[in-house]
Write a structure and sequence with these properties.
Layout: H1 2-22, E1 42-47, E2 51-53, E3 59-61, E4 65-67, E5 81-86, E6 92-97, H2 110-113, E7 115-119, E8 125-127, E9 130-132, H3 137-154, H4 160-194, E10 197-201, H5 205-211, H6 219-237, E11 241-245, H7 266-271, E12 274-276, E13 282-284, H8 285-302
Parallel strand pairs: 7-10, 10-11
Antiparallel strand pairs: 1-5, 2-3, 3-4, 5-6, 7-8, 8-9, 12-13
The chain binds zinc ion (ZN).
The site of zinc ion has 7 residues, from loops.
Keywords: DNA recombination, DNA-binding, Transposition
Family: In the C-terminal section; belongs to the transposase 35 family.
Organism: Streptomyces malaysiensis subsp. samsunensis
């Protein structure tokens, strides 16, 4: 069953590719399917006739039998499929496709609660009236990761030390991913609860990676992309407006008092924490940027220019 599913997925990928090529498929161009990259992650997907949820909490998987599951949450509806994943750190996960309904939160006063978000300079994010500090664990884990990777590179190919070193690296990666997900879930939930509208810079996350060429994206960069995506999904699910402000909008350079564009630019702008405009107003760089993004987002929202 798992093999048939793989073939069906490949078929879907080809169908999407050719439809995209002929121009009959909406959305961005679809690339032809690529060979799967070798990785420590393995998975199988089973549709409705391949698994059964037992009353005693076990999961019956075809050809495997009953498997004990530690449920992270009750399923909101009957799942249409399950994907069983073994991650590189050797942990197994069951992930279900379920249907849920959007649950709009009670509406808040727009003017009082709308916020701009300036992502990823000195702090993790700058919001209206508060900042989210960069979590320290990224740095700590990155250090650990480098040490483990050095050990791995010194281990002889095919040796059992190498296998162990590889698992150690995978475990650190897994831990970083868990912490990151947890952090992002908590922060985005708080934002969605507090704000009726969220205005954020449209990060070009793909571009951010390619600019640096082949060098791996830092843990921080990766997490910003995930933060933006998670926030967008939550806004949609809980009935909050999300407006993306053009990433070339000069949020940092513009003076929020007189609209002149005289603030710190480029690399210099990353270092400077506060600046004085020719109009005499002293700005905290981050707060000024947030205010500019908020105003621009509000303008786009009012003009109906917001892309949804
Ligand atoms: Zn000014």
């Amino acid at each position: 069953m798992a093999l048939v599913q793989s073939l069906q997925d490949l078929h879907t990928a080809h169908r999407n590719y050719f439809a995209s090529k002929r121009g009959v498929r909406k959305g961005p161009k679809t690339a032809p399917p690529k060979m799967k990259r070798k990785s420590g992650r393995q998975s199988i997907r089973l549709t409705r006739n391949g698994f059964v949820l037992r009353d005693n909490g076990k999961l019956f998987i075809a050809k495997l039998g009953d498997v004990a599951v530690r449920w992270s949450r009750p399923l909101p509806s009957d799942p249409s499929s399950v994907t069983v994943v073994k991650d590189p750190a050797g942990r197994y996960f069951a992930s279900f496709v379920v249907e849920t309904e959007d649950k709009p939160l009670p509406e808040l006063d727009l003017d009082e609660t709308e916020t701009g978000i300036d992502l990823g300079l000195s702090s993790y994010a700058v919001l209206r009236g508060r900042k989210i500090a960069s979590p320290k664990f990224f740095r700590r884990q990155e250090k650990k990761l480098r040490r483990a990777q050095r050990k791995l590179s010194r281990a002889r190919k095919g040796s059992s030390n190498r296998r162990k070193a590889k698992l150690a690296v995978s475990k650190i990666h897994a831990r970083i991913a868990d912490q990151r997900r947890d952090f992002i879930e908590q922060e985005t939930t708080r934002i969605v609860r507090e704000s009726q509208a969220v205005y954020a810079e449209d990060l070009n996350v793909k571009g951010m990676g390619s600019k640096k060429g082949k060098r791996a994206k830092s843990v921080h960069d990766q997490s910003l992309g995930m933060f933006a995506r998670t926030l967008e999904n939550k806004c949609a699910r809980y009935g909050r407006a999300l407006v993306k402000v053009d990433r070339f909008f000069p949020s940092t350079q513009m003076c929020s008092a007189c609209d002149s564009i005289e603030g710190p630019k480029g690399l210099e702008g990353l270092r400077i924490r506060s600046w004085t405009c020719t109009c005499g107003v002293v700005h905290d760089r981050d707060q000024n940027a947030e205010l500019n993004i908020r105003r621009e987002g509000k303008r786009l929202l009012a003009a109906g220019l917001a892309e949804r």
